[in-house]
Amino acid sequence: MPSQRQIYVTKPSMPSKEEYFAEVSDLWETGILTHSGVKHQELERHLLKFLDVPYITLFTNGHLGLEAAFSLFPAGGEVITTPFTFVSTTLAIVRAGLTPVFCDIEPEQYTLDPSLVEKAITPNTVAIAPVHVYGNVCDCGAIDAIAKAYNLKVVYDAAHAFGECVDGAGVATFGDMSMFSFHATKVFNTGEGGGVACSDGTLKRKLDAWKYYGFETSGGDVEVVGANAKMTEFAAAMGLCNLRHFAEEQVKRAHVCACYRNNLNGVAGIHFCPEQPHVQSNYAYLPVTIESELYCRDVVVSRMDDQGVHSRKYFYPLTSEYTCFEYLHANPEDTPIALKASREVLTLPLYADLSEDDINRVCEALVKALR
Ligand SMILES: *Cc1c(COP(=O)(O)O)cnc(C)c1O
Q1: What angle do the packed helices 201-210 and 62-71 form, to 10 degrees?
Q2: d(CA 181, CA 66)
Q3: pLDDT digit string, tens, across residues 301-315
Q4: Are 93 and 45 in contact (CB under 8 A)?
């Protein structure tokens, strides 16, 4: 069999070398490579407008942004969250000295089910940490209302939700803090990077201090046990370039998603998450559910791999199943919808430059794998 070209699940968006080199060239004159330099400041300014949020703090990566956010709560508190996410969400809660309490997701969008949140609240609960998985936006209205009623904070893991709007408002205008990831594989990237958007200036100051060892002002006192998690000028410059191309990339991603939905429409045993009419999507991921009554998702993934088409079991396993969280004694059967999703969902190759020929190859590989 002739070796065939592989189609990978993602490919990072990059500006031209010329554009990036032009953006970073003045760093050789200023010699300022980090510490909230001009690129960092400029990117923060652009993102405030772009994301429609009052405050944002940039980080070395999204994970450390989440850790910073959770570190603002008194250690020992409980955080109600979803196990159907990337391990980072759960790790950040634990590393901030808090205890994750796993709550199930709803079956259509795979986001935290607000109707189950209230039952999980105890006197120790300090926050709710929902995740906009795949860019599927949570029921923010319901979640924020519960938080308000019980005087809890909401920290959204918006790693997948960059640039999305809900009824015209930026997705990070909900809750108290929202973390965006700018990892190479995300819709908007700075190589490694992230940002935490927040609703008030006090939070912004605390997050700024946390990422700078806890110093509130340079040379001043250290009041919080912070870390070093500042974004470098090289990463911020990458962000400035990629942001210029975000809109055009979105058009291409939307087209890729439409082609997939169209090509695979009516194939028995698989389905897509329903589109959210109130959400301006960012087309970050295209999850496909392989109904376990008919097919085995893992077999489908490996049969596609054999054809040079690489999908991803995303998310598998549940974070509550990882060895490092055994001490929590969380039973995956207690979150049956999340458990089922982790056994049924795969995400298809998706990036702006994925050609129609490649989309067709992916669809053919999937259909063949189902035979
Ligand atoms: C990518 C991701 C993170 C972590 O972001 P990094 O920038 O890679 O540190 C956290 N949560 C989710 C859901 C993610 O997909």
Answers
A1: 120
A2: 10
A3: 999 999 999 999 999
A4: no
CA distance 350 to 11: 8
CA of 368 from ligand 1 middle (Å) equals 32
pLDDT at 216: 82
181 Cβ below 6 A of ligand 1: yes
* pLDDT tens per residue, range 321-342: 999 999 999 999 999 999 999 9
DSSP 36: S
Helices (H), 97-245: 114-120, 140-150, 201-210, 233-244
Reported as type and span, the H/E element at residue 270 is: strand 270-272
- Side-by-side strand order, sheet with 125-129: 55-59, 194-198, 177-181, 153-157, 125-129, 78-81, 99-102
85 lines ligand 1 (CB under 6 A): yes
Residue nearest to atom 2 of ligand 1 (CA): 159
Q: What is the model's pTM?
A: 0.97
pLDDT under 50: residue ranges of the chain: none
- Mutate-to-test residue for ligand 1 from 88, 105, 136, 182, highest number of ligand atoms within 8 A of CB: 88
Ligand 1 pocket member 160 (CB < 6 A) = yes
How far, in Å, from the CA of 64 to the mean position of ligand 1?
Answer: 9
Measured torsion, CA atoms of residues 109, 64, 59, 35, in degrees rounded to the nearest 10: 170
**CA distances for 302 relative to 206, 287, 310, 339, angstroms:** 46, 16, 9, 20
Q: Tell me, in angstroms, the distance from the centre of ligand 1 to residue 60's CA.
A: 12
Q: Could you tell me the CA-to-CA distances from 8 to 307, 349, 353, 354 in Å, in that order?
A: 12, 6, 12, 10
Ligand 1, atom 5: closest residue by C-alpha: 62
Q: What is the residue whose two structure tokens read 């709550």?
A: 103
Name the closest-CA residue to atom 13, ligand 1: 86
